[in-house]
Fold this sequence. Notes:
The structure is a single chain. It is built from 13 helices and twelve strands. It is of the alpha+beta class. 29% of the residues are buried. Among the domains are: 3-95, lambda repressor-like DNA-binding domains (434 Repressor (Amino-terminal Domain), Orthogonal Bundle); 336-451, no CATH class. Helix 2 (26-32) packs across helix 3 and helix 11 runs parallel beside helix 12. The longest helix is centred in the C-terminal third of the chain and has 28 residues, at 335-362. The strands form four sheets. The protein has a six-stranded antiparallel beta sheet with strand order 7-8-9-10-11-12, covered by helices on one side. A two-stranded parallel ribbon has the order 1-3.
Amino acid sequence: MDSQSKGKNQFPRLIKEIRNRRKLTQTAFAKLLSPPITQQTVAQWERDENVPGRKYWSQIAALTEMELGEFYEYIEKGSLSKPSSPLEEMLDKIKSLDPKELEVITQATAERWVSLGEVGYTANKQHLALLKRGADVWNRWREENRAIKPVLSGIDLSLEGCIDLSDYNLEKADLQGVSGNEIKFSRAKLNWADLSGAVLRSANFENATMIGTKLLNAELTEAHFHSAHLQGADLSQANLERATLIATHLMQTNLSGANLTQADLRWSVITEANLEGAILKNCLVYGTAVWKVRLDGAEQSELDTSLRTATQIEEGIFSNSLRFAQTIDSISDDPQAYEELKQRFKDEEQAIKYAQYLVENYGQEQPNDSRLYTAPEERYRIISSLGDLVVTAPDSHRSLISRDRNGKIRSNLRPGDVDNLQALIEFEGKPEASSQTTLNKRKSTLRTASKG
């Protein structure tokens, strides 16, 4: 059959429709065919200067998602048989829409269902259908349609057969209120996704990337987050009873009000996290790194510092403070570390006491309600201002010790500093302390940090 002899050639419009729908250039389209053709050949087809040879017809039919018989009918007649109903006609029109146009149709359909009183099912059915086709199809669609936000809220993943979402790209997806038991999200990308109110008991999020993910009020009992990355995630009011959070990154994570009873937090990194009002009872905390954590109002008790691996079960030392658990366990196994820590606290307390005494009794008034004490040869300088106290020395590039008005102490004391501050008090208390001879004698008695 010579398609040109059967009336108007349908190929120019058909080729353009295929390229537009699949977002292909003429060069990319040419590479899809076997044997391959050139971009110039595709351009000739679209300008109606030539028609594809029959060896390409089955391939072009597949790209149009037509049966071969339908394709031949279309080429001969310019259209398929007339649909038997308005619904079939509408469906035929929908088949020719590109993804963005389909999105508009889907949203309009959802609004229509709502107006008819259908409630409780808010997921985009097109998105759900794509989800069911597997990770490869889904991720390719996400890559080609980055501006589209997947809407999968409210679905029962178990009921829909979506029990394994490992390696899926679900970034920024609306997954509010999804449910299902033992759903797999291993290695999934869930950055900035919204799973608020999700009910995902025993879900597996191992090695998932969940930066900024919303999980507030989520039901995550016995969920598995081994090595997941949850920086900046919102798990406020979430139920994480018996959840596994081994080696989990929880930097700047919001866990306020979360229930972490019997959670496994071993080797996790909890930095600048919000745990205000959280429940931390009977948790495993061996190796947990805790830095600048907010714990106001948190219930903390029976935090187990033992390793408790399958091959090494030991009775740990229990703590009622997440901040101190690691320190308490460390010093209990190392008597020398305990003595060193105890001596450090004693030195800091003594240094603050001596510095406060020197600046108050022998310091000079300064502007802004401050006082300054300078030791002979300016070996030490102590300044007190509005409750802050700072001790410095010219041979150190950082403060030796400081205490702010809230009682926070930062210490870099060197060997000999505490003894020198005590010696200064003894010296300043002598009546002849102001004489030049005594000053010179006192200079020789002050030990430097390097000789302490």
